[in-house]
Design brief:
About 30% of the residues lie in helices and about 25% in strands. It is built from 12 helices and 19 strands. α1 runs parallel beside α12, α4 crosses α5 and α8 packs antiparallel against α9. Bound molecules: flavin-adenine dinucleotide (FAD).
Length: about 400
Amino acid sequence: MSEAFEHIVVGGGISGLGLAHGAARRGIQTLVLEAAERVGGCINSQSFPACGGYWVEAGTHTCYNSYGHLLDILGDLGLMERLTPKAKVSFALWRHGQRQTIFSALHLGELLLSLPRLFTAKKTGLSVRDYYAPGLGAANYRDLFGPAFSAVICQEADDFPAELLFRRKPRRKEVLRSFTLPQGLSEIPLALARQPGVTLRTGQSLREIRRDGEGFRLLMADGQELSCATLSLATPPDVAARLLGAPAGPLPDQAVVGAMAGIGMREIESLVLAVSTQALGHLPPSAGLIAVDEAFNAMVSRDYLADGAYRGFSFHFRPGVLTPEDQEQRSCAALGIAPAAIAGLARVHNRLPALRVGHGERVACIDAALAGTRLGITGNWFQGVSVEDCLTRSHQECERLFA
Ligand SMILES: Cc1cc2nc3c(=O)[nH]c(=O)nc-3n(C[C@H](O)[C@H](O)[C@H](O)COP(=O)(O)OP(=O)(O)OC[C@H]3O[C@@H](n4cnc5c(N)ncnc54)[C@H](O)[C@@H]3O)c2cc1C
């Protein structure tokens, strides 16, 4: 016997929870199935009990007043009063094993000569490198902007579509320009999962989806069977392709499955550290490090929200380059501390899609196959990887399924 539900969302990251929120607001009871033991996916405020609950973001660290769908959700959840300003701190460069200023890598003459091209060139159909290197100057792109863009998306940015890296969105000027929450951004997925109309089950990995008349039958890894009238997938694209592409699955069209399976994934080995403030007296507050030719793309600090006792840092390493011990050594070298000074340490495996030029065609192919079905698909692999990009897609899918 399978348990029956009106709507099931698979994947409890911000995309899945955003879609569950939209459905619940329309009166659709929604069950969210999450494979991990916690919700939030890449939104993950790592708390260190041994450090009095001091937390450090292991993934998403900043949301902005241009995140309109997120702000609507925060309003619905009564979280607007909890928005907390971030102190202004700047990034530094980490190059040749040394901390350097951003300005030291800037080729000003080249920038001034190149900039007019940036204002006239179109992003459409161009990669980040092909759009920005002519517009900022090849040396500027190599020494500063290329590494900075890679730091933003935690992967090599050269081949990423320029139009999906930054997208201009209207700002809500009455809201803090960038913000966090007192217990970190994980407050958001936790509140989404606790709202009326949404039921969360963690530790629930979906293994197979079968068509079941007009609806769907879900076979879970632990042997349970669930069924639903409407199904929404909010997993990474490789997982979605595997789940949908099975012969008895709901989308056995190989072109569509191929469009999803062809989206590469970047694995990120994040090392999250809490260090006593005393041990870091020599280190001025900063937003983090943009790394050039390093084993990590970026380090993001928690100096934007000071704490008397601790400071926090997340180093986002490329996979398989350093052993865990060497990652720890490298991070300590960048902070100028001995490993003994580390008060809290966590290792987190993050994953992000590696989008490529021509991505819009993949999305169009997927959307054509979904039209008229009770199957929704959302994630950070449609509009772009930011939290707002995820929620924009979730909002669109919610409208299509339930409007
Ligand atoms: C290090 C880092 C820093 C970032 N910084 C920012 C930032 O500052 N600002 C910003 O806007 N964005 C940032 N991002 C991007 C943003 O956090 C992510 O793109 C977004 O959170 C992804 O949400 P998602 O729900 O689409 O995917 P995910 O968060 O990956 O969630 C997918 C969920 O599906 C679950 N799942 C997978 N397979 C199954 C299965 N078979 N059954 C059930 N569940 C399954 C996973 O466990 C996971 O919880 C950052 C990302 C990273 C990695």
